[in-house]
Amino acid sequence: MTIPQLHPDAAAKVQAHRAKKELMVSLGLAPELPADWREKALCKFDELLHQRRSLALYMDICVRCGACADKCPFFLGTGDPKNMPVARAELLRKVYRRHFTAAGRVSGHLAAGEELTDTVLNEWFTYFYQCSECRRCAEFCPFGVDTAEITMAAREIMASIGVAPKYVTEVIKKAHELGNNIGIPEAAWIDGCQFLEEELKAQTGLDIKVPVNQAGAEVLLVPPSADLFVNTDTMVGYALMFHAAGIRWTTSSYASEAGNFGLFLNYEHLKKINLRIVDSARQLGVKRLVMGECGHAWRAAQAFMNTLNGPLDFLEPPCPEHICELAARLIRAGRLKLNKSANDGLVVTYHDPCNLARGGGLMEEPREILRAVVNDFREMPANTIREKTFCCGAGGGLLTEELMETRMNGVKPRLEAFRTSGATHLATPCAICKAQFPVAFKHYAMNAQVVGVMDLLGKALVL
Amino acid sequence: MITQFLPALLYVSAVIFIIGMGRRIYIWVRTPVPLNIVLTPAPKHIPGVIGRLVGELFGFHALAKADRSLWTPAWLFHFSLVLLLLGHLGGLVIPHFAQTAMGLNEKQFEHMAQIVGGAVGILAIATLLWLLIRRLILPRVRWISTFSDYFALVLLLLILATGNAMRFMGGLDIVQARNFVAGWLALHPVAPPSDPVFSIHIVLVCMLLIYIPFSKLVHIGGVALLSPTLNQRNNPREHRYVNSWDKANDNSTTSS
Amino acid sequence: MSVVTLAGKQFEVDEDGFMQDTTQWTPDVAIGLAKSEGIDALTDDHWKVINYLREYYQKFNVAPPIRMVCKQTGFPLKRIYELFSTGPAKGACKLAGLPKPTGCI
Predict the structure, then answer these.
(1) Given Cys at both, which of A99, A439, C32, C52 links C6, Cβ 3.0 to 4.6 Å?
(2) Which residues of C lie closer than 8 Å to A, measured between beta carbons?
(3) Do the strands C2-6 and C9-13 form a parallel or antiparallel pair, or are they unpaired?
(4) What tens digit of pLDDT does each residue of B69-112 get?
(5) How far apart are CA A354 and CA A386, in angstroms?
């Protein structure tokens, strides 16, 4: 994608709704900006600098070479210079230099240091919630500076002084109270799964289970709750695959969400939400844990779960396993009978969710599955796939109405690559991507569809 | 006066540089890495990680992927800087050893130093100018540039210019320079060479040494390799990472 | 948060225009909110969807899965988008007085 002209403040007005008092309190966060918020924020900043080498190092070593600048989908889409990863990071760095470095304390502006003021805080809330933590910038940084780490730190600091978005906090609250982001209570979860069983019976004539809370099942599958609520074909795909492979599986109404919005707010909630999955696996006595089609869930589970709430040695390795890893394994072992032509007429390309590619290295298995279940599979340009994938534009807690302008700008580089592929269907194993793309296709009047990888597998399965 | 001042300034600068860098590195190394945040695809084993780090340190691999038009001057500049440092070491600190090691007589050695050193000196200043011009003409890079970015470039430029001036104007007595370096290292400082450019060169180098630990120039010496996104392994499922400040669940049966 | 006046009564709505207190819902609310969703007049088909959403919500305290809405109303998803251009989870829920569904949808 061509590098845009600079449009200073082009995205300055796009800001998330703030969470209200009661919501903040329910998450154990400061209800609102306290009078001494500057001191509190700097205190939290200091704490994080002592807890995370990534932050401490990335505050110091950036040389502002600009290699990352044109790699960010939000800069490419908006042209707002503060959406360049380096400039986004500088929003935090300038305060770091002013308050935590000798040069900044002595020479202030000369060392590009800046006081933490209302204006700076407002900028933080704007631009750290226009970063999807996709880490594409880090991929191209000569020092591996990861803006996601900086964004996460900034969000954590803000949360500690009562500044957080309504969307992210509301979702976290529901995850704690009901076990999933949508807020589906147990009875509705069970009802929804039964409904799918009836649908499957009508479709196939077979008794295909969509089990809930089955103690002693071999596999606990943790899908994003959106798979039951909207992306039903993905849920059906799981059920068909487990049925065809003869694996006893279950979902859990306690951990009915793969996603973890704690990743978009702070460590404490990341850990707490993550624990539900581990507890559920233990309670149900399953042998293995499989994560469904959700991007950031994979990072939270694959890379963090063992640390946050492990050890996971009561489960069989690989733990956790991704549904695509499992499916690819079953295909390789010849345990699934597939008929590719069931998906004929579809021209399919694969969109790597950021967190699968750069946060977990899961890039081959989905492609392996797609090649096995569709006849016309093609790739998007090489500099936009695998670890160089472009974010769909709504990860990182941005999937909310009021950020629509930035979302529709952020998706542009991905859509441009998609157009050149000539595909009609964009397959991706991520619920956020699946929610973002249809809006984008409509916005840009594109005749295309988004599907899950398991949706296509399910359609190709011969039962 | 310059006889005492220059060596003293150099001692002070060197101490500030060593302590300053040491302190920064100590802080980074001491700071925990709570989670596995490696950028994938990443190696599962240590030899692979070493390979990745070597690629970044010596090849600027990520930068090569990012922007060839930046990688080229950046890599050439750093490469020539390393050569210049080695040249200073060989020509000023251990000239006899360097001559013997290269199998050259004194005249051949000086001749070689003149040609190679001169070429590398020009390469360094040319690539540095390239980087400065790039910073000035690319709107997005200009937008993010701060005073300190230009300060570092200009300081390096002046150091290279004075160095090249000594080589090409021929005002420097190399024997005097070697004596000065030897005396300084032996803690018995002697008078610096009579060429005033030499003294300016040294003062600028001292400024740089003092500036490095307190600026973005701390990136020297490969400290970026402490970056967890680059130096971790992609094995969090096989190997449990323990967060040193949150061991609440640490009843691991596997070794860490 | 703001307040809207519909059919002579005042209701608190959130930033996206969703009712804060779903128990206050009356059919007049749906009629009053229809304009904000670009609907001139609510037809029987609109009401079919709205009534089903309310019925499900009263039973389960959450909006129903989209496929269930299609099945129970007999409308394919396309038809529901014709009725409510922002979709079942947004426009339809707003008119039915349900809280805004959150999560990855």
Answers:
(1) C32
(2) 1, 15-16, 60-68, 71, 89-90, 101-105
(3) antiparallel
(4) 999 999 999 999 999 999 999 999 999 999 999 999 999 999 99
(5) 8
Encoded amino acid at A28, one letter: G
pLDDT at B254 exceeding the cut of 50 = no
Is C104 an active-site residue?
A: yes
Q: What is the 3-state secondary structure (H, E, C) of C68-103?
A: HHHHHHCCCHHHHHHHCCCCHHHHHHHHCCCCCCCC
Residue B255 near chain A (CB below 8 Å) = no
Query: What pTM, to 2 d.p., does this model score?
Result: 0.96
In the prediction, which pLDDT does B256 show? 34
Residues of chain A with pLDDT under 70: none
> What is the full DSSP assignment across B18-83?
HHHHHHHHHHHHHS---S--PPSS--SSHHHHHHHHHHHHHH-HHHHHH-HHHHHHHHHHHHHHHH
How is A307-329 classified by DSSP, letter by letter? HHH---TTSPSSSSEEHHHHHHH
Q: What is the end-to-end Cα distance of chain B in Å, rounded?
A: 59
Model confidence over A77-104: pLDDT tens digits? 999 999 999 999 999 999 999 999 988 8
Are A387 and B40 within 8 A, CB to CB?
yes
Nearest Cβ partner for C103 among A20, A225, A402:
A225
In 3-state terms chain A splits into helix, strand, coil percentages (rounded to 5) of: 55, 5, 40
Provide the 10 A C-beta neighbour count for residue C76: 10
Q: What's the topology of domain C2-95?
A: Arc Repressor Mutant, subunit A (1.10.10)
The C-alpha atoms of residue A117 and residue B110 are separated, in whole angstroms, by 59
pLDDT tens per residue, range A373-386: 999 999 999 999 99
Q: Which chains touch A (3 or more CB pairs under 8 A)?
A: B, C
Choose among C16, C63, C71: nearest Cβ to A401: C16
Domains of chain A: 21-164 (1.10.1060), 179-332 (no CATH), 340-460 (3.40.50)
- Contact at CB, B33 and A54, closer than 8 angstroms: yes
Using 50, 70 and 90 to split pLDDT, how confident is the model at B255? very low
CA A71 – CA A401 distance, rounded (Å): 25
Residue of C1, C3, C41, C104 marked catalytic: C104
pLDDT of residue B247: 83
Q: Is B207 on the interface with A (CB under 8 A)?
A: no
pLDDT digits (tens, 9 = 90+) for B151-205: 999 999 999 999 999 999 878 899 999 999 999 999 999 999 999 999 999 999 9
Residues of B in contact with A361 (CB under 8 A): 40-42, 234
Domains in chain B with CATH codes: 2-231 (1.20.950.20)
CA distance A362 to A353: 9
Residues 67 through 96 of chain A touching chain B, CB cutoff 8 Å: 67-71, 81, 84, 86-87, 90
Q: Do A184 and C62 touch (CB under 8 A)?
A: yes
Q: What burial letters (b/e) apply to A362-395, b meaning 16+ CB within 10 Å?
A: bbebbbbbbebbbebbeebeeebbbbbbbbbbbb
- The ipTM value here is 0.96
Sort strands C2-6 and A219-222 into parallel, antiparallel or unpaired.
Answer: unpaired
